[in-house]
Amino acid sequence: MKTVFSLYLSFLGCAAFVQSADLPKFRHVTIDDKVKIGYGIAIADMNADKKKDIILCDANNIAWYENPSWKKHIIVENLTQRDHVCIAVRDIDGDGKAEIAAGAQWNPGETSDESKSGAVFYLIPPLDRTDKWTPIQLQHEPTTHRMRWIETPNGEFDLVVLPLHGRGNKSNKGRGVRTLAYHKPSDPKQPWKTTLVDGNMHASHNFDVTQWDKDPSNELLLGGLEGVFLLQQVKGNKWIRQQISNNPSGEVRKGTGSNGTTFVTAIEPMHGSQLSIYTSSKEPAKTNQWQRNIIDDTLDQGHALATGDFMSTGDDQIVAGWRGTRRTGKVGIKFYYPSNKDRSKWESIVVDDNQMATEDIRVSDLNNDGKLDIIAAGRASHNLKIYFNE
Fold first, then answer.
1. How far is CA 237 from the centre of its chain?
2. Distances (CA, A) of 180 to 144, 149, 163, 172
């Protein structure tokens, strides 16, 4: 099996650069203007109609919006006393309908008492998925913050859960953040076993699940206080860890260039102002640091990041959103594209000018026209919007 450590990841001189005349135009559609926080978005088919629906984790409820009417269906409400904070949504049993896990009891200041901080639930769907779902509470670490389903090497699915802090930590010092893989039993009401994925970070914020060079094995990109790390799953539920950067990071995503080459993009530091790109022209096993290129340093509380080929060029572009107003007085979303052949220089256009205090972003082709669309949720703007790529 070809691993990421044997890949030649040169990103230079192999991608066609974007002409400004080819830039996408986005049509804005608000599908909910009563969002409280909009902590997390997922995209999946919820009812096996082969249309991609939108799932939103909001402070007091989790809901799905049915494509194409975008009718809102409440999945659960008030799982815990404190806010819901994250969701993981994916079809894990092959029936064409997505399964859901959720994180709640958002209390980042309490890192020791698990009864007051953090919660993990698996949600059992009813026959009619527009009705309320049944939550099954699982064991958890304090400060539950992000989660994703991953496919294991044996074809099963695990739930990976990332806390914000290590247990008992104060001022980002103490024990490492226990990122756990939950192994789903045949009966989800029975106890779930867990495996430690990583326990080295002292504050983490987000992660990405991806594949490299069409390798069927999973990779995790983990961003946090100590930088960006690439984790690869190997036999026996063990993970290999490689550091890409030592710059404190919040959001992190993988992007694809021409001929399968790859890059990593990150918002730095957590809730930060810089959008960076990392590339490697050497075998990763022979270098501790990838080459860093800061392509924007004007974000204010950057909190959302996505990559995708919006222009059908064979290379991914970048979408980033921010939620702060102290620097420019405006919140919004930008679209970034390379402006030279070796992709060392990037330009941007504004997708949303002060109407989206971006908390989270996802990209997907929602109307099956072959073009990626943007889906974003806003905190202070209290909205959920689709930006159709036209």
1. 22
2. 11, 12, 9, 19
Q: Convert the pLDDT of each residue in 3-49 to its tens digit.
A: 333 333 333 333 445 555 589 999 999 999 999 999 999 999 999 99
Extract long-range pairs of 91-94: CB within 8 Å, 24+ residues apart: 91/44, 91/45, 92/149, 92/157, 92/184
Q: What angle do CA 219, 222, 223 make, to 5 degrees?
A: 155
| DSSP one-letter string for 2-66 | --GGG-----SS-SPPPPGGG---EEEEEEES--S---EEEEE-SSSSS--EEEEE-SSEEEEEE
Coil vs helix vs strand at 286: helix
pLDDT in tens, 124-163: 999 999 999 999 999 999 999 999 999 988 888 999 999 9
What is the model's pTM? 0.92
DSSP state of 284: G
Listing DSSP states for 297-351 in one string gives ---SSEEEEEEE-TTSSSS-EEEEEE---TTTS--EEEEEEE-STTS--EEEEEE
